[in-house]
Specification:
4-stranded antiparallel β-sheet; 2 helices; 6 strands; 37% strand; globular
Amino acid sequence: MKNIYVGNISYSATEDNIKELFEQHGKVNSAKIIIDRYTQRSKGFGFVEMEDENEAGEAINAINGIEFLGRNLKVNEAREKRY
């Protein structure tokens, strides 16, 4: 299981849009766009969880830097949150 960070997401994008984009490269378990709890608007980034590590690697390489809904996505392996 691989967790992928997706940044610079268009504010008009939905979780389904992101999931469909990544499903072109393999099985997607979940796609989550982070929402600001005060404004209820997208923060412009999110996470995708993919089942297979190889498919996740292919997705990262294929999608990083592409234009999606007018924004160039930044895609890389998610790192553990450090406090």
